[in-house]
Amino acid sequence: MTGAAATAVQIPAWLHDFYAKVDACDTEAVLAGFAPDARMTYGANAPMPGRDAIRAGLDWLFTSYRRIEHEFLNVWASGPVLLLEANVTYGCPDGRDVTVPALTVIEHRDGLVDDLRVFIDPTPTRAG
């Protein structure tokens, strides 16, 4: 977002569709929304470059929780870059539901996600 201010925007339909697939924990449907050479980063984990790495990361995430649900709070855009502020509720394996805040930076071009960076601290979801 070099030199450009982000502006609050209505939530694009593609973003609703993309996160409906995330919340359904459907790895292949989510993966189809990424460009072949895309990159994804989740929390403090190393970036996952390319669809094979992203698939492995999504499989890990989707099998680590009973469910995932996103509540969109705000969306800002600057060109092809979106900032998504959300509350994410995780259904933990121990039966708890834990909600944590997240900010996601999404670079979206030609109908596909090029880069998705999720800034989140999932520590509260771990059994204590």
Task: Describe the structure concisely for a colleague.
By secondary structure, the chain is an alpha+beta fold. It contains three helices and seven strands. 24% of the residues lie in helices and 45% in strands.
Question: Which key phrases capture this entry?
Answer:
single chain, 128 residues, alpha+beta, seven-stranded mixed β-sheet, 3 helices, 7 strands
Termini Cα gap: 39 Å
Query: Helical element count?
Result: 3
Order of helices and strands: EHHEEHEEEE
How large a portion of the residues is in β-strands, by DSSP E?
over 45%
> Helicity, in percent?
10-25%
Spatial strand order of the main sheet:
1-4-5-6-7-2-3
Rg over CA atoms, rounded to whole Å, is: 14 Å
Largest sheet composition: 7 strands, mixed
Q: Provide the structure class.
A: alpha+beta
Structural description of this entry:
24% of the residues lie in helices and 45% in strands. The chain has 128 residues and is α+β, with helices and mostly antiparallel strands. It has a 7-stranded mixed β-sheet with strand order 1-4-5-6-7-2-3, covered by helices on one side. Strand 6 and strand 7 (112-120) form a beta hairpin. The longest helix has 15 residues, at 50-64. The model has no long low-confidence stretch (mean pLDDT 94).
